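A further point concerns the way the authors explain their paired sequence and structure data. The central task, working out the structure tokens from the amino acid sequence alone, is never made concrete. I therefore recommend that a typical entry be quoted early in the introduction. An entry of this sort, consisting of the sequence and the corresponding backbone structure tokens, reads as follows:
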Amino acid sequence: MSEIVMSDKYPQFCNEIAKMGHTVIFSDTIKIFHTPEQKHPDMQLLAIRDNLFMLNECIGLKGKLNSLGKKIICCDKAAEKCYPENILLNCLYLNNTLYGKINKIDKTVLDYCNKNHIRTVNVNQGYTRCSTLVINQKAVITADKSIEKSLKKDGVEVLLVFPGNIVIDGFDYGFIGGAGAQIDNTTIFFGNIEKHPEYHRIKKFCLKNNSDINILCPNMPLTDIGGIVRI
């Protein structure tokens, strides 16, 4: 199986991922962030090819991943509390293209993309990765129209859903990318996606793109936990 970085805020989700045979590595607590975002791995790590870009503030996580022999590149800047200075690594790498709010992505990431012939595409939504649930390299789900527009232009099939109906403590609602993940041709949802008003569209889209659905902890509401980072 594989190693997966995820938040330990909801141990029941971690336990379910571990039952699937994966090694769960807990993300750090970044105290400078707003409380709902402090443990979100999609704020702390970005995987591109064989590299893991990491916030400088992730001291504990860096030690864990170094012990596993992972190649880590630390950010050039320090993260700050408020948007958009907190989104240094919150971008989407898909099909050799990096999507995000380009002027806020950390310099180490942009330099790497430039040197390795990876396209960069600017989108208005700074929480690009939080906002995007990747089903496969040619199909994603998002509630953000700027992401939809950019990905469609690049030939990616996009299911646009309405925002909301996803729990995140401290904010009005969470993002679909933080409430799900793609693992081995299965779309994992953290909580009961069946109660989402667009569940049938989401299910149909997943099945059309050869992805089964696995609902973790169906007794819980669909919850934005910051997704996972598979390393």
Q: What stands out?
A: The helical segments are 11-19, 41-44, 59-67, 107-115, 145-153, 199-208. The chain has a mean pLDDT of 97. The radius of gyration is 16 Å.
